[in-house]
């Protein structure tokens, strides 16, 4: 039994006439007759019986037709989905990103991408998380692309820098440091600090900053998500070093620029190396790279 026989059977069952079915299938009548005969031999039952110059389904044929139609319908749906996935203008992109990008950067990129007429039929499935979990999701093929921090010793991941992100110190508005607009990181040494947890991709960068400033932070607690850190700082639970995200304006905190030590914090577009990406995914990846180059001068203000 093969797909060709099933398609022939369904077509003949529809019109119940060999000549017409053969014409619909663009094959000869003997070819159709042979295919149906071989199918009946394999199944061990007659699927059709003669009725004058036509044929009609037997009760076995009617029963088999239900399964054939279900199977072929599922296959045809799968074929249509594969066609969409293989199209640069259709499909769904599974995209993951770190929490700090959800308020401004991701909406801006998606908005600009979707404005292009050729991309209007491309949709997205979004996931948020910390870099460690996102990288594992890429390896497990849960995501096509991801925006995250750089991770050492990940030879199977391709990291493309696409934006720089400013780090700041935030303090409660009644804090002793709140009268400043910028500080050296060493000035934070006396105060308890709310820290990103070890799963966060930004944790190594912040660790390096404190090491360079030659101070050991007084970590009062560790948190995964940026807004939780800002909330804790706003109620005077501690101070924090974190990315300057748009949502900080909604919290009762003072934002201080870091004068020293100097640092560079980049956001990366990550994907699996030597791994097939659907045309729509490649289309979006290329758009992001171009978008990043065009907005390089003010990328930190998009984050």
TrEMBL record:
<dbReference type="InterPro" id="IPR036390">
    <property type="entry name" value="WH_DNA-bd_sf"/>
</dbReference>
<dbReference type="GO" id="GO:0003700">
    <property type="term" value="F:DNA-binding transcription factor activity"/>
</dbReference>
<dbReference type="Pfam" id="PF03466">
    <property type="entry name" value="LysR_substrate"/>
</dbReference>
<dbReference type="InterPro" id="IPR000847">
    <property type="entry name" value="LysR_HTH_N"/>
</dbReference>
<dbReference type="InterPro" id="IPR005119">
    <property type="entry name" value="LysR_subst-bd"/>
</dbReference>
<dbReference type="InterPro" id="IPR050950">
    <property type="entry name" value="HTH-type_LysR_regulators"/>
</dbReference>
<dbReference type="InterPro" id="IPR036388">
    <property type="entry name" value="WH-like_DNA-bd_sf"/>
</dbReference>
<feature type="domain" description="HTH lysR-type">
    <location>
        <begin position="1"/>
        <end position="58"/>
    </location>
</feature>
<dbReference type="Pfam" id="PF00126">
    <property type="entry name" value="HTH_1"/>
</dbReference>
<keyword id="KW-0804">Transcription</keyword>
<keyword id="KW-0805">Transcription regulation</keyword>
<comment type="similarity">
    <text>Belongs to the LysR transcriptional regulatory family.</text>
</comment>
<dbReference type="GO" id="GO:0005829">
    <property type="term" value="C:cytosol"/>
</dbReference>
<keyword id="KW-0238">DNA-binding</keyword>
<dbReference type="GO" id="GO:0003677">
    <property type="term" value="F:DNA binding"/>
</dbReference>
<protein>
    <submittedName>
        <fullName>LysR family transcriptional regulator</fullName>
    </submittedName>
</protein>
């Amino acid at each position: 039994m093969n797909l060709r026989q099933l398609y022939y059977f369904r077509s003949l069952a529809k019109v119940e006439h060999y000549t017409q079915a053969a014409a619909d299938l663009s094959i000869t009548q003997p070819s159709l007759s042979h295919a149906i005969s071989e199918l009946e031999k394999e199944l061990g039952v007659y699927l059709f019986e003669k009725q004058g110059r036509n044929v009609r389904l037997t009760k076995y044929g009617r029963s088999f037709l239900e399964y054939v139609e279900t199977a072929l319908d599922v296959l045809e749906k799968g074929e249509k989905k594969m066609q969409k996935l293989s199209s640069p203008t259709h499909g769904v992109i599974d995209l993951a990103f770190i929490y700090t990008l959800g308020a401004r950067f991701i909406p801006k990129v998606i908005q600009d991408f979707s404005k292009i007429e050729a991309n209007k039929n491309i949709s997205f499935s979004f996931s948020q998380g910390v870099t460690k979990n996102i990288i594992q999701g890429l390896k497990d093929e849960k995501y096509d692309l991801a925006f995250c921090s750089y991770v050492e010793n990940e030879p199977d991941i391709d990291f493309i820098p696409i934006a720089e992100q400013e780090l700041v110190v935030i303090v409660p508005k009644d804090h002793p440091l709140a009268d400043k607009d910028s500080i050296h990181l060493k000035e934070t040494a006396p105060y308890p600090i709310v820290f990103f947890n070890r799963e966060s991709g930004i944790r190594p960068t912040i660790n390096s900053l404190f090491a360079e400033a030659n101070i050991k932070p007084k970590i009062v607690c560790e948190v995964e998500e940026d807004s939780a850190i800002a909330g804790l700082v706003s109620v005077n639970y501690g101070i924090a070093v974190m990315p300057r995200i748009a949502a900080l304006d909604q919290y009762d905190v003072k934002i201080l620029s870091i004068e020293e030590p100097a640092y560079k914090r980049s956001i990366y577009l990550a994907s699996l190396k030597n791994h097939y990406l659907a045309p729509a995914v490649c289309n979006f990846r290329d758009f992001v790279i171009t978008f990043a180059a065009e907005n390089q001068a003010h990328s930190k203000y998009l984050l």
